[in-house]
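wait is this the right file?? whatever heres the structure
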Protein backbone atom coordinates (compact mmCIF):
# COMPACT_ATOMS: atom_id res chain seq x y z
CA UNK A 1 0.00 0.00 0.00
CA UNK A 2 1.27 3.45 -0.95
CA UNK A 3 0.13 7.05 -1.16
CA UNK A 4 -1.00 7.94 -4.67
CA UNK A 5 1.11 11.12 -4.65
CA UNK A 6 4.24 9.06 -3.95
CA UNK A 7 3.46 6.66 -6.77
CA UNK A 8 3.13 9.62 -9.12
CA UNK A 9 6.76 10.68 -8.59
CA UNK A 10 8.44 11.35 -12.01
CA UNK A 11 5.05 11.29 -13.82
CA UNK A 12 4.29 14.58 -15.57
CA UNK A 13 0.76 15.56 -14.63
CA UNK A 14 -1.53 17.57 -16.90
CA UNK A 15 -4.47 17.97 -14.51
CA UNK A 16 -5.66 16.62 -11.18
CA UNK A 17 -9.22 16.39 -9.83
CA UNK A 18 -9.52 15.22 -6.22
CA UNK A 19 -7.06 14.24 -3.55
CA UNK A 20 -3.74 12.54 -4.30
CA UNK A 21 -2.96 11.93 -0.62
CA UNK A 22 -4.96 8.70 -0.71
CA UNK A 23 -3.65 5.25 0.00
CA UNK A 24 -3.88 2.82 -2.92
CA UNK A 25 -3.72 -0.92 -2.79
CA UNK A 26 -2.58 -2.00 -6.25
CA UNK A 27 -2.09 -0.60 -9.75
CA UNK A 28 -4.13 -2.09 -12.62
CA UNK A 29 -4.50 -1.24 -16.30
CA UNK A 30 -7.19 -3.89 -16.88
CA UNK A 31 -10.55 -2.94 -15.36
CA UNK A 32 -11.41 -6.62 -14.92
CA UNK A 33 -8.65 -6.99 -12.36
CA UNK A 34 -9.46 -3.89 -10.30
CA UNK A 35 -10.67 -4.30 -6.75
CA UNK A 36 -11.21 -2.17 -3.66
CA UNK A 37 -8.88 0.86 -3.27
CA UNK A 38 -6.88 0.19 -6.43
CA UNK A 39 -5.74 2.75 -8.99
CA UNK A 40 -6.86 2.16 -12.57
CA UNK A 41 -4.69 3.35 -15.45
CA UNK A 42 -6.65 3.82 -18.70
CA UNK A 43 -4.58 2.93 -21.76
CA UNK A 44 -5.43 3.41 -25.42
CA UNK A 45 -4.53 -0.01 -26.77
CA UNK A 46 -4.35 -1.67 -30.13
CA UNK A 47 -7.73 -3.41 -29.84
CA UNK A 48 -9.68 -1.23 -27.46
CA UNK A 49 -9.47 1.90 -25.35
CA UNK A 50 -9.08 1.58 -21.58
CA UNK A 51 -10.87 4.92 -21.17
CA UNK A 52 -14.10 3.08 -22.01
CA UNK A 53 -13.70 1.02 -18.86
CA UNK A 54 -13.16 3.83 -16.33
CA UNK A 55 -16.71 3.59 -14.95
CA UNK A 56 -16.43 -0.16 -14.72
CA UNK A 57 -13.16 0.17 -12.78
CA UNK A 58 -14.78 2.57 -10.33
CA UNK A 59 -17.72 0.20 -9.88
CA UNK A 60 -15.20 -2.48 -8.98
CA UNK A 61 -13.65 -0.28 -6.30
CA UNK A 62 -11.00 1.90 -7.94
CA UNK A 63 -10.42 5.04 -5.91
CA UNK A 64 -8.17 6.75 -8.43
CA UNK A 65 -8.01 6.89 -12.21
CA UNK A 66 -5.05 7.83 -14.42
CA UNK A 67 -6.13 8.84 -17.92
CA UNK A 68 -5.13 10.80 -21.00
CA UNK A 69 -8.61 12.33 -21.36
CA UNK A 70 -10.71 13.38 -18.40
CA UNK A 71 -14.12 11.68 -18.45
CA UNK A 72 -17.08 14.04 -19.00
CA UNK A 73 -18.68 13.04 -15.72
CA UNK A 74 -16.46 12.57 -12.73
CA UNK A 75 -17.54 10.76 -9.59
CA UNK A 76 -17.27 12.50 -6.23
CA UNK A 77 -14.61 11.07 -3.95
CA UNK A 78 -12.62 9.55 -6.82
CA UNK A 79 -9.25 11.06 -7.77
CA UNK A 80 -8.63 11.68 -11.49
CA UNK A 81 -5.16 12.37 -12.80
CA UNK A 82 -4.71 13.38 -16.42
CA UNK A 83 -1.34 12.54 -17.99
CA UNK A 84 0.08 12.91 -21.47
CA UNK A 85 0.94 9.25 -21.91
CA UNK A 86 -0.74 6.60 -19.75
CA UNK A 87 1.69 3.81 -20.64
CA UNK A 88 4.64 5.97 -19.66
CA UNK A 89 2.86 7.03 -16.45
CA UNK A 90 2.11 3.38 -15.67
CA UNK A 91 5.79 2.48 -16.00
CA UNK A 92 6.93 5.18 -13.55
CA UNK A 93 4.09 4.35 -11.17
CA UNK A 94 5.01 0.66 -11.24
CA UNK A 95 8.65 1.45 -10.45
CA UNK A 96 7.64 3.77 -7.57
CA UNK A 97 5.09 1.29 -6.23
CA UNK A 98 7.73 -1.44 -5.94
CA UNK A 99 10.40 0.95 -4.51
CA UNK A 100 12.39 1.32 -7.73
CA UNK A 101 13.74 -2.24 -7.63
CA UNK A 102 15.93 -1.95 -10.76
CA UNK A 103 18.20 0.40 -8.76
CA UNK A 104 19.14 -2.39 -6.38
CA UNK A 105 20.59 -4.79 -8.92
CA UNK A 106 22.55 -4.65 -12.19
CA UNK A 107 19.94 -4.84 -14.92
CA UNK A 108 21.06 -5.64 -18.47
CA UNK A 109 18.66 -5.43 -21.42
CA UNK A 110 19.07 -7.42 -24.62
CA UNK A 111 17.37 -6.20 -27.78
CA UNK A 112 17.40 -7.13 -31.48
CA UNK A 113 15.35 -9.31 -33.82
CA UNK A 114 16.97 -12.67 -33.06
CA UNK A 115 19.10 -13.98 -30.23
CA UNK A 116 17.57 -12.11 -27.30
CA UNK A 117 16.40 -15.22 -25.44
CA UNK A 118 19.65 -17.00 -26.20
CA UNK A 119 21.89 -14.16 -25.00
CA UNK A 120 19.82 -13.35 -21.90
CA UNK A 121 19.51 -17.02 -20.90
CA UNK A 122 23.21 -17.73 -21.45
CA UNK A 123 24.13 -14.71 -19.33
CA UNK A 124 21.80 -16.02 -16.64
CA UNK A 125 23.58 -19.41 -16.77
CA UNK A 126 27.05 -17.83 -16.89
CA UNK A 127 26.55 -15.55 -13.89
CA UNK A 128 24.88 -18.35 -11.94
CA UNK A 129 27.92 -20.54 -12.59
CA UNK A 130 30.12 -17.65 -11.45
CA UNK A 131 28.42 -17.87 -8.07
CA UNK A 132 25.97 -14.97 -8.22
CA UNK A 133 22.26 -14.94 -7.55
CA UNK A 134 20.72 -14.03 -10.90
CA UNK A 135 17.36 -13.02 -12.36
CA UNK A 136 16.01 -13.56 -15.87
CA UNK A 137 13.05 -12.12 -17.78
CA UNK A 138 12.74 -14.00 -21.06
CA UNK A 139 10.33 -15.42 -23.63
CA UNK A 140 10.84 -18.93 -22.27
CA UNK A 141 10.68 -18.30 -18.56
CA UNK A 142 11.16 -15.88 -15.70
CA UNK A 143 13.70 -16.73 -13.03
CA UNK A 144 14.39 -15.35 -9.61
CA UNK A 145 17.52 -17.22 -8.66
CA UNK A 146 16.56 -20.90 -8.93
CA UNK A 147 12.85 -20.21 -8.74
CA UNK A 148 11.03 -20.40 -12.09
CA UNK A 149 7.86 -18.60 -13.21
CA UNK A 150 5.85 -18.87 -16.41
CA UNK A 151 6.46 -16.17 -19.03
CA UNK A 152 3.55 -14.76 -21.03
CA UNK A 153 5.48 -12.18 -23.04
CA UNK A 154 9.06 -11.60 -24.14
CA UNK A 155 8.98 -8.31 -22.25
CA UNK A 156 6.09 -8.26 -19.76
CA UNK A 157 4.12 -5.13 -18.85
CA UNK A 158 5.80 -2.61 -16.54
CA UNK A 159 3.84 -3.67 -13.44
CA UNK A 160 4.85 -7.30 -13.93
CA UNK A 161 8.48 -6.37 -14.61
CA UNK A 162 8.76 -4.27 -11.46
CA UNK A 163 6.97 -6.85 -9.33
CA UNK A 164 9.49 -9.50 -10.40
CA UNK A 165 12.41 -7.10 -9.88
CA UNK A 166 11.09 -6.50 -6.37
CA UNK A 167 11.01 -10.26 -5.76
CA UNK A 168 14.59 -10.37 -7.03
CA UNK A 169 15.58 -7.64 -4.54
CA UNK A 170 14.00 -9.64 -1.75
CA UNK A 171 15.86 -12.77 -2.84
CA UNK A 172 19.21 -10.95 -2.98
CA UNK A 173 19.59 -11.10 -6.77
CA UNK A 174 22.62 -9.11 -7.96
CA UNK A 175 22.28 -9.32 -11.74
CA UNK A 176 19.19 -9.49 -13.89
CA UNK A 177 19.19 -10.13 -17.64
CA UNK A 178 16.08 -9.25 -19.56
CA UNK A 179 14.83 -9.31 -23.13
CA UNK A 180 13.68 -5.97 -24.44
CA UNK A 181 11.26 -6.45 -27.34
CA UNK A 182 10.26 -3.74 -29.77
CA UNK A 183 6.66 -3.99 -28.53
CA UNK A 184 8.03 -3.55 -25.02
CA UNK A 185 9.92 -0.38 -25.94
CA UNK A 186 7.06 1.07 -28.00
CA UNK A 187 4.59 0.43 -25.17
CA UNK A 188 6.87 1.89 -22.46
CA UNK A 189 7.07 -1.45 -20.65
CA UNK A 190 10.76 -0.73 -19.87
CA UNK A 191 10.47 3.01 -19.23
CA UNK A 192 11.89 4.18 -15.91
CA UNK A 193 14.07 1.09 -15.39
CA UNK A 194 17.70 1.73 -14.44
CA UNK A 195 19.82 -0.27 -16.85
CA UNK A 196 23.48 -1.05 -16.18
CA UNK A 197 23.90 -2.17 -19.77
CA UNK A 198 22.26 -2.78 -23.12
CA UNK A 199 23.14 -5.37 -25.75
CA UNK A 200 22.13 -5.27 -29.42
CA UNK A 201 22.07 -8.58 -31.32
CA UNK A 202 20.90 -7.85 -34.89
CA UNK A 203 18.07 -6.35 -36.86
CA UNK A 204 16.16 -8.08 -39.64
CA UNK A 205 12.60 -8.41 -40.88
CA UNK A 206 10.01 -8.88 -38.10
CA UNK A 207 6.81 -7.33 -36.73
CA UNK A 208 6.27 -4.98 -39.66
CA UNK A 209 2.53 -5.38 -39.03
CA UNK A 210 2.97 -3.49 -35.76
CA UNK A 211 5.72 -1.02 -36.63
CA UNK A 212 4.63 -0.23 -40.22
CA UNK A 213 8.11 0.25 -41.70
CA UNK A 214 11.56 -1.17 -41.12
CA UNK A 215 12.84 2.34 -40.25
CA UNK A 216 10.19 2.68 -37.56
CA UNK A 217 11.06 -0.77 -36.17
CA UNK A 218 14.77 0.18 -36.12
CA UNK A 219 14.09 3.52 -34.42
CA UNK A 220 12.03 1.85 -31.70
CA UNK A 221 14.95 -0.48 -30.93
CA UNK A 222 17.32 2.49 -31.03
CA UNK A 223 15.17 4.36 -28.49
CA UNK A 224 16.25 1.76 -25.92
CA UNK A 225 19.91 2.80 -26.35
CA UNK A 226 19.01 6.50 -26.52
CA UNK A 227 17.57 6.17 -23.03
CA UNK A 228 20.52 4.38 -21.40
CA UNK A 229 22.33 6.47 -18.76
CA UNK A 230 26.00 7.51 -19.06
CA UNK A 231 26.93 4.99 -16.35
CA UNK A 232 25.73 2.04 -18.47
CA UNK A 233 27.51 0.15 -21.24
CA UNK A 234 26.03 -0.17 -24.73
CA UNK A 235 27.33 -3.20 -26.57
CA UNK A 236 26.57 -3.59 -30.26
CA UNK A 237 27.13 -6.04 -33.09
CA UNK A 238 29.44 -4.20 -35.51
CA UNK A 239 28.78 -6.77 -38.28
CA UNK A 240 25.11 -5.80 -38.39
CA UNK A 241 24.32 -2.96 -40.79
CA UNK A 242 22.35 -1.20 -38.06
CA UNK A 243 24.75 -1.99 -35.24
CA UNK A 244 26.41 1.42 -35.15
CA UNK A 245 23.17 3.29 -35.81
CA UNK A 246 21.78 1.84 -32.59
CA UNK A 247 24.45 3.62 -30.53
CA UNK A 248 24.47 6.91 -32.46
CA UNK A 249 22.75 8.93 -29.76
CA UNK A 250 23.41 6.95 -26.62
CA UNK A 251 25.01 8.52 -23.56
CA UNK A 252 26.26 5.10 -22.45
CA UNK A 253 29.83 3.85 -22.94
CA UNK A 254 29.99 2.24 -26.38
CA UNK A 255 31.52 -1.16 -27.14
CA UNK A 256 31.41 -3.34 -30.25
CA UNK A 257 31.68 -7.04 -31.00
CA UNK A 258 32.12 -8.67 -34.39
CA UNK A 259 33.32 -11.65 -36.37
CA UNK A 260 34.04 -9.76 -39.59
CA UNK A 261 34.52 -6.08 -38.71
CA UNK A 262 36.97 -4.20 -36.52
CA UNK A 263 35.63 -4.34 -32.96
CA UNK A 264 36.49 -4.25 -29.26
CA UNK A 265 35.54 -7.91 -28.91
CA UNK A 266 36.46 -10.20 -31.79
CA UNK A 267 35.83 -13.86 -32.48
CA UNK A 268 36.77 -16.30 -35.17
CA UNK A 269 35.11 -19.64 -35.87
CA UNK A 270 37.74 -22.39 -35.90
CA UNK A 271 35.38 -25.35 -36.03
CA UNK A 272 31.64 -25.70 -36.47
CA UNK A 273 29.78 -29.01 -36.39
CA UNK A 274 26.98 -30.85 -34.60
CA UNK A 275 29.26 -31.18 -31.59
CA UNK A 276 29.46 -27.41 -31.13
CA UNK A 277 31.69 -24.49 -31.98
CA UNK A 278 35.37 -23.95 -31.44
CA UNK A 279 35.99 -20.22 -31.25
CA UNK A 280 38.92 -17.92 -30.90
CA UNK A 281 37.67 -15.09 -28.70
CA UNK A 282 40.06 -12.13 -28.29
CA UNK A 283 43.06 -14.54 -28.64
CA UNK A 284 41.66 -17.22 -26.33
CA UNK A 285 40.36 -20.53 -27.67
CA UNK A 286 37.04 -21.61 -26.29
CA UNK A 287 34.80 -24.54 -27.07
CA UNK A 288 31.03 -24.34 -26.72
CA UNK A 289 28.22 -26.86 -27.08
CA UNK A 290 26.13 -24.29 -28.94
CA UNK A 291 25.74 -24.98 -32.63
CA UNK A 292 25.73 -22.70 -35.67
CA UNK A 293 27.50 -19.57 -36.89
CA UNK A 294 24.88 -17.31 -35.38
CA UNK A 295 25.68 -18.71 -31.96
CA UNK A 296 29.24 -17.45 -32.35
CA UNK A 297 27.70 -13.96 -32.17
CA UNK A 298 25.66 -14.89 -29.13
CA UNK A 299 28.66 -16.37 -27.32
CA UNK A 300 30.82 -13.36 -28.18
CA UNK A 301 28.11 -10.99 -26.93
CA UNK A 302 27.90 -12.78 -23.58
CA UNK A 303 31.66 -12.91 -23.24
CA UNK A 304 31.89 -9.15 -23.86
CA UNK A 305 29.01 -8.40 -21.49
CA UNK A 306 30.52 -10.55 -18.75
CA UNK A 307 33.81 -8.63 -19.03
CA UNK A 308 31.99 -5.30 -19.00
CA UNK A 309 30.21 -6.44 -15.84
CA UNK A 310 33.52 -7.27 -14.21
CA UNK A 311 34.02 -11.06 -14.59
CA UNK A 312 37.58 -12.24 -15.18
CA UNK A 313 38.35 -13.42 -18.74
CA UNK A 314 39.58 -16.85 -17.72
CA UNK A 315 36.61 -17.41 -15.48
CA UNK A 316 34.11 -16.37 -18.19
CA UNK A 317 35.71 -18.63 -20.77
CA UNK A 318 35.69 -21.59 -18.42
CA UNK A 319 31.97 -21.14 -17.76
CA UNK A 320 31.17 -20.51 -21.42
CA UNK A 321 32.46 -23.96 -22.31
CA UNK A 322 29.93 -25.45 -19.87
CA UNK A 323 26.84 -23.56 -21.04
CA UNK A 324 23.84 -25.58 -22.20
CA UNK A 325 21.71 -24.75 -25.26
CA UNK A 326 18.54 -22.84 -24.52
CA UNK A 327 15.28 -24.75 -24.69
CA UNK A 328 13.86 -24.84 -28.24
CA UNK A 329 16.97 -23.26 -29.80
CA UNK A 330 18.65 -25.88 -32.01
CA UNK A 331 17.57 -28.65 -29.67
CA UNK A 332 17.95 -32.05 -31.22
CA UNK A 333 17.17 -35.74 -30.88
CA UNK A 334 19.01 -38.48 -32.73
CA UNK A 335 16.87 -41.59 -33.25
CA UNK A 336 17.97 -45.23 -33.02
CA UNK A 337 18.03 -45.29 -36.82
CA UNK A 338 20.29 -42.21 -36.92
CA UNK A 339 17.75 -39.65 -38.04
CA UNK A 340 18.44 -36.23 -36.52
CA UNK A 341 15.39 -34.16 -35.58
CA UNK A 342 16.11 -30.51 -34.79
CA UNK A 343 13.61 -28.19 -33.13
CA UNK A 344 14.32 -24.50 -33.48
CA UNK A 345 12.40 -21.31 -32.71
CA UNK A 346 13.31 -19.75 -36.07
CA UNK A 347 10.16 -17.76 -36.80
CA UNK A 348 11.68 -14.95 -38.83
CA UNK A 349 13.17 -15.13 -42.35
CA UNK A 350 16.67 -14.37 -41.05
CA UNK A 351 16.56 -16.96 -38.26
CA UNK A 352 15.24 -19.61 -40.66
CA UNK A 353 17.98 -18.86 -43.15
CA UNK A 354 20.66 -19.02 -40.43
CA UNK A 355 19.45 -22.33 -39.11
CA UNK A 356 19.15 -23.90 -42.56
CA UNK A 357 22.57 -22.61 -43.62
CA UNK A 358 24.07 -23.97 -40.42
CA UNK A 359 22.54 -27.40 -41.05
CA UNK A 360 23.65 -27.33 -44.69
CA UNK A 361 27.21 -26.45 -43.72
CA UNK A 362 27.33 -29.54 -41.51
CA UNK A 363 25.22 -31.96 -43.62
CA UNK A 364 26.72 -34.16 -46.32
CA UNK A 365 25.25 -34.18 -49.82
CA UNK A 366 23.45 -37.52 -49.67
CA UNK A 367 21.54 -36.69 -46.51
CA UNK A 368 18.10 -35.14 -46.98
CA UNK A 369 17.08 -32.02 -45.09
CA UNK A 370 13.33 -32.14 -44.50
CA UNK A 371 11.94 -28.89 -43.11
CA UNK A 372 8.57 -28.57 -41.38
CA UNK A 373 7.59 -24.93 -40.99
CA UNK A 374 4.68 -22.49 -40.84
CA UNK A 375 4.01 -18.89 -39.83
CA UNK A 376 1.98 -17.50 -36.95
CA UNK A 377 -1.44 -15.95 -37.54
CA UNK A 378 -2.32 -12.36 -36.53
CA UNK A 379 1.31 -11.41 -37.02
CA UNK A 380 3.38 -9.81 -39.78
CA UNK A 381 2.12 -11.30 -43.08
CA UNK A 382 4.97 -9.99 -45.20
CA UNK A 383 7.42 -12.47 -43.68
CA UNK A 384 5.38 -15.43 -44.98
CA UNK A 385 6.50 -15.56 -48.66
CA UNK A 386 10.06 -14.77 -47.55
CA UNK A 387 10.07 -17.78 -45.24
CA UNK A 388 8.49 -19.90 -48.00
CA UNK A 389 11.27 -18.93 -50.34
CA UNK A 390 14.05 -19.57 -47.82
CA UNK A 391 12.68 -22.92 -46.62
CA UNK A 392 12.24 -24.27 -50.15
CA UNK A 393 15.54 -22.96 -51.48
CA UNK A 394 17.65 -24.29 -48.60
CA UNK A 395 16.01 -27.68 -47.88
CA UNK A 396 15.72 -30.79 -49.98
CA UNK A 397 12.06 -31.28 -48.98
CA UNK A 398 9.63 -28.97 -47.24
CA UNK A 399 6.33 -29.54 -45.52
CA UNK A 400 4.47 -26.28 -44.97
CA UNK A 401 2.15 -26.46 -42.01
CA UNK A 402 0.49 -24.39 -39.28
CA UNK A 403 2.37 -22.51 -36.57
CA UNK A 404 -0.05 -20.76 -34.18
CA UNK A 405 -2.87 -19.77 -36.58
CA UNK A 406 -4.54 -17.76 -33.80
CA UNK A 407 -7.68 -16.27 -35.41
CA UNK A 408 -6.56 -16.73 -39.03
CA UNK A 409 -7.44 -19.51 -41.49
CA UNK A 410 -4.37 -21.82 -41.47
CA UNK A 411 -4.78 -22.79 -45.12
CA UNK A 412 -4.70 -19.14 -46.18
CA UNK A 413 -1.48 -18.63 -44.20
CA UNK A 414 0.08 -21.61 -45.98
CA UNK A 415 -1.00 -20.20 -49.37
CA UNK A 416 0.77 -16.93 -48.53
CA UNK A 417 3.92 -18.83 -47.54
CA UNK A 418 3.81 -20.80 -50.80
CA UNK A 419 3.67 -17.59 -52.84
CA UNK A 420 7.37 -17.14 -52.11
CA UNK A 421 8.41 -20.52 -53.53
CA UNK A 422 10.22 -20.25 -56.86
CA UNK A 423 9.12 -22.58 -59.69
CA UNK A 424 12.31 -24.66 -59.62
CA UNK A 425 11.51 -25.55 -55.98
CA UNK A 426 7.84 -26.53 -56.52
CA UNK A 427 8.73 -30.21 -56.60
CA UNK A 428 10.26 -30.04 -53.13
CA UNK A 429 7.18 -28.77 -51.34
CA UNK A 430 3.97 -30.14 -49.94
CA UNK A 431 1.52 -28.89 -47.35
CA UNK A 432 -0.06 -30.62 -44.38
CA UNK A 433 -2.17 -28.18 -42.38
CA UNK A 434 -2.26 -30.21 -39.17
CA UNK A 435 1.16 -29.71 -37.55
CA UNK A 436 1.17 -33.11 -35.84
CA UNK A 437 0.42 -34.83 -39.16
CA UNK A 438 3.09 -32.72 -40.87
CA UNK A 439 5.68 -33.88 -38.34
CA UNK A 440 4.52 -37.47 -38.83
CA UNK A 441 4.86 -37.13 -42.61
CA UNK A 442 8.42 -35.84 -42.17
CA UNK A 443 9.26 -38.84 -39.97
CA UNK A 444 7.78 -41.21 -42.55
CA UNK A 445 9.86 -39.65 -45.34
CA UNK A 446 13.12 -39.59 -43.39
CA UNK A 447 15.69 -42.32 -43.75
CA UNK A 448 18.93 -43.10 -41.97
CA UNK A 449 21.16 -40.00 -41.52
CA UNK A 450 18.52 -37.59 -42.84
CA UNK A 451 17.82 -34.41 -40.92
CA UNK A 452 14.38 -33.11 -39.97
CA UNK A 453 14.12 -29.45 -39.00
CA UNK A 454 10.94 -28.39 -37.23
CA UNK A 455 11.01 -24.61 -37.15
CA UNK A 456 8.99 -21.78 -35.61
CA UNK A 457 7.73 -22.95 -32.23
CA UNK A 458 10.87 -23.97 -30.37
CA UNK A 459 10.16 -24.18 -26.64
CA UNK A 460 6.42 -23.51 -26.97
CA UNK A 461 4.35 -26.23 -25.38
CA UNK A 462 1.03 -25.27 -26.94
CA UNK A 463 -0.56 -24.52 -30.28
CA UNK A 464 -3.05 -21.65 -30.44
CA UNK A 465 -5.98 -22.17 -32.81
CA UNK A 466 -8.98 -19.85 -32.68
CA UNK A 467 -8.06 -18.44 -29.29
CA UNK A 468 -7.71 -21.90 -27.78
CA UNK A 469 -4.33 -23.20 -26.62
CA UNK A 470 -3.87 -26.97 -26.77
CA UNK A 471 -0.83 -28.90 -25.57
CA UNK A 472 1.73 -29.20 -28.33
CA UNK A 473 5.46 -29.86 -28.12
CA UNK A 474 7.44 -30.25 -31.35
CA UNK A 475 10.36 -32.12 -29.77
CA UNK A 476 8.14 -34.52 -27.86
CA UNK A 477 5.98 -35.24 -30.89
CA UNK A 478 8.85 -35.86 -33.30
CA UNK A 479 10.62 -38.08 -30.77
CA UNK A 480 7.46 -40.14 -30.25
CA UNK A 481 6.82 -40.59 -33.99
CA UNK A 482 10.39 -41.64 -34.71
CA UNK A 483 10.19 -44.23 -31.94
CA UNK A 484 6.74 -45.42 -33.02
CA UNK A 485 7.92 -45.83 -36.61
CA UNK A 486 11.03 -47.71 -35.44
CA UNK A 487 13.19 -45.24 -37.31
C1 LIG B 1 -0.34 -5.90 -29.62
C2 LIG B 1 0.16 -5.82 -28.23
O1 LIG B 1 1.35 -5.76 -28.01
N1 LIG B 1 -0.74 -5.83 -27.25
C3 LIG B 1 -0.35 -5.71 -25.85
C4 LIG B 1 -1.06 -4.52 -25.23
O2 LIG B 1 -2.42 -4.75 -25.29
P1 LIG B 1 -3.40 -3.85 -26.14
O3 LIG B 1 -2.81 -2.48 -26.24
O4 LIG B 1 -3.69 -4.55 -27.40
O5 LIG B 1 -4.70 -3.86 -25.23
P2 LIG B 1 -6.21 -3.71 -25.71
O6 LIG B 1 -6.83 -5.04 -25.75
O7 LIG B 1 -6.28 -2.83 -26.91
O8 LIG B 1 -6.85 -2.93 -24.47
C5 LIG B 1 -6.52 -1.57 -24.16
C6 LIG B 1 -6.56 -1.42 -22.67
O9 LIG B 1 -7.88 -1.65 -22.19
C7 LIG B 1 -7.84 -2.49 -21.10
N2 LIG B 1 -9.11 -3.20 -20.96
C8 LIG B 1 -9.57 -4.04 -21.92
C9 LIG B 1 -10.77 -4.72 -21.76
C10 LIG B 1 -11.51 -4.55 -20.57
O10 LIG B 1 -12.58 -5.11 -20.33
N3 LIG B 1 -11.01 -3.69 -19.63
C11 LIG B 1 -9.85 -3.02 -19.78
O11 LIG B 1 -9.45 -2.28 -18.90
C12 LIG B 1 -6.67 -3.41 -21.38
O12 LIG B 1 -6.17 -4.01 -20.21
C13 LIG B 1 -5.66 -2.43 -21.97
O13 LIG B 1 -4.95 -1.78 -20.95
O14 LIG B 1 -0.70 -4.41 -23.87
C14 LIG B 1 -0.97 -5.58 -23.08
C15 LIG B 1 -0.49 -5.30 -21.66
O15 LIG B 1 0.87 -4.99 -21.63
C16 LIG B 1 -0.25 -6.80 -23.65
O16 LIG B 1 -0.58 -7.94 -22.90
C17 LIG B 1 -0.67 -6.99 -25.09
O17 LIG B 1 0.08 -8.05 -25.60
C18 LIG B 1 -0.60 -8.96 -26.46
C19 LIG B 1 -1.34 -10.01 -25.64
C20 LIG B 1 0.39 -9.62 -27.42
O18 LIG B 1 0.12 -10.65 -28.01
N4 LIG B 1 1.55 -9.04 -27.60
C21 LIG B 1 2.63 -9.55 -28.44
C22 LIG B 1 2.49 -9.11 -29.89
C23 LIG B 1 3.91 -8.99 -27.86
O19 LIG B 1 3.91 -8.07 -27.07
N5 LIG B 1 5.04 -9.59 -28.26
C24 LIG B 1 6.34 -9.14 -27.81
C25 LIG B 1 7.42 -10.00 -28.45
C26 LIG B 1 7.68 -9.61 -29.80
C27 LIG B 1 9.00 -10.19 -30.27
O20 LIG B 1 9.01 -11.29 -30.84
O21 LIG B 1 10.03 -9.50 -30.16
C28 LIG B 1 6.56 -9.40 -26.32
O22 LIG B 1 7.33 -8.63 -25.73
O23 LIG B 1 6.05 -10.40 -25.84
N1 LIG C 1 22.46 -14.11 -33.08
C1 LIG C 1 21.55 -14.63 -33.89
N2 LIG C 1 21.46 -14.22 -35.18
C2 LIG C 1 20.54 -14.73 -36.01
N3 LIG C 1 19.67 -15.71 -35.67
C3 LIG C 1 19.70 -16.16 -34.41
C4 LIG C 1 20.64 -15.64 -33.45
N4 LIG C 1 20.45 -16.28 -32.29
C5 LIG C 1 19.43 -17.12 -32.48
N5 LIG C 1 18.98 -17.08 -33.77
C6 LIG C 1 17.86 -17.81 -34.38
O1 LIG C 1 16.67 -17.15 -33.96
C7 LIG C 1 15.82 -18.06 -33.23
C8 LIG C 1 15.25 -17.34 -32.03
O2 LIG C 1 16.32 -17.12 -31.11
P1 LIG C 1 16.01 -16.42 -29.74
O3 LIG C 1 14.84 -17.07 -29.15
O4 LIG C 1 17.25 -16.35 -28.96
O5 LIG C 1 15.59 -14.98 -30.29
P2 LIG C 1 14.66 -13.88 -29.66
O6 LIG C 1 15.24 -12.58 -30.12
O7 LIG C 1 14.54 -14.05 -28.22
O8 LIG C 1 13.22 -14.12 -30.33
P3 LIG C 1 11.78 -13.50 -29.81
O9 LIG C 1 11.70 -12.13 -30.41
O10 LIG C 1 10.74 -14.34 -30.39
O11 LIG C 1 11.78 -13.48 -28.34
C9 LIG C 1 16.70 -19.22 -32.84
O12 LIG C 1 15.94 -20.37 -32.71
C10 LIG C 1 17.69 -19.26 -33.97
O13 LIG C 1 17.11 -19.89 -35.07
N1 LIG D 1 7.42 -13.29 -30.06
C1 LIG D 1 6.93 -13.73 -31.33
C2 LIG D 1 6.94 -15.21 -31.33
C3 LIG D 1 6.44 -15.88 -32.58
C4 LIG D 1 6.45 -17.37 -32.46
C5 LIG D 1 5.66 -18.10 -33.48
N2 LIG D 1 5.56 -19.45 -33.04
C6 LIG D 1 4.27 -17.48 -33.64
O1 LIG D 1 3.39 -17.88 -32.89
O2 LIG D 1 4.08 -16.63 -34.51
C7 LIG D 1 5.55 -13.14 -31.57
O3 LIG D 1 4.73 -13.11 -30.65
O4 LIG D 1 5.31 -12.68 -32.67
MG1 LIG E 1 12.89 -14.12 -27.04
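ok assuming it is, sequence goes like this
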Amino acid sequence: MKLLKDILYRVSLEAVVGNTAVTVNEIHFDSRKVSFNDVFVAIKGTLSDGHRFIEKAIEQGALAVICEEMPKNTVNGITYVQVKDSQQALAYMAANFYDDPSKNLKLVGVTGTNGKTTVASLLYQLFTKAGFKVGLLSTVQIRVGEETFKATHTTPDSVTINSYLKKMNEAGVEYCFMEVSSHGIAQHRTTGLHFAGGIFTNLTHEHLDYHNTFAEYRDVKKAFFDQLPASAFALTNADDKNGKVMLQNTKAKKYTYALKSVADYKAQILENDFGGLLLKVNDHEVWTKLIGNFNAYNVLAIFAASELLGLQTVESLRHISELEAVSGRFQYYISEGKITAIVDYAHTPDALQNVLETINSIRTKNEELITVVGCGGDRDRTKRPKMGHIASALSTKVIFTSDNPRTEDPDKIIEEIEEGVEPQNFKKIMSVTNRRQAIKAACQMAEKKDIILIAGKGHETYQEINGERKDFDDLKIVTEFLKELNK
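The two ends are 60 Å apart (CA to CA). so i think its the right one actually
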